[in-house]
Design goal:
The protein has 171 residues and is mostly helical. The longest helix has 24 residues. The protein is built from nine helices and no strands. Helix content is 63%, strand content 0%. The radius of gyration is 18 Å and the shape is elongated. α2 packs antiparallel against α3, α4 runs parallel beside α6 and α5 packs parallel to α7.
């Protein structure tokens, strides 16, 4: 199954590269500012460069753009890598898609839980991320956090239990 996913990812990436090259041959403008801004936006989110993220956004990067193969948005990339500053900048933007999912069906919250990033989990929950969502393996935020054996992961589990209890009491 993993080999099949990897192959699909690689094929998607190669398709995007060849499509872009063909567009260039057909006379598309070489200077594609939005395309470049989107690439810089995603790269900045992945690397945790908040100022570069802000710059790319001000140059027209699309808030919910995603990379071709894995479908990861800047919010997901920030959560995966525990870049709280980038994540909080993105959460402050009107129109951010908290529930965007990547190729594997994981949202930013699911990735933050899987990686044990307590600060990102708190920020995402505060912003209203859905803690009941599941990835393609049917794992939810609580299940993913329980798989880690760190103090932060244990704190995440307790926070999620508390949030879920509050949610059930409201119903």
């Amino acid at each position: 199954m993993k080999q099949e996913k990897t192959l699909v990812f690689i094929m998607g990436f190669l398709f995007s590269v060849f499509s872009f090259a063909n567009d260039q041959k057909k006379g598309m403008p070489k200077d594609m500012p939005i395309f470049r801004a989107n690439l810089e936006f995603l790269e900045a989110a992945e690397k945790g460069h908040t100022e570069n993220l802000k710059d790319a956004f001000s140059l027209g990067a699309e808030l919910n753009t995603h990379n071709i193969g894995s479908k990861r948005t800047a919010l997901i990339l920030s959560a995966i890598n525990g870049h709280e500053s980038c994540l909080n900048f993105l959460l402050a933007q009107k129109g951010i898609d908290l529930e965007a999912k990547d190729y594997w069906g994981r949202s930013a919250l699911l990735w933050a839980c899987a990686k044990g990033s307590l600060s990102c989990v708190v920020s995402l929950l505060t912003a209203g991320a859905n803690f009941y969502t599941k990835d393609q393996d049917k794992d939810d935020a609580l299940t993913l956090a329980r798989k880690l054996d760190t103090r932060d992961a244990k704190n995440i589990v307790e926070i999620l239990k508390g949030v879920m209890k509050e949610d059930q009491e409201r119903e």
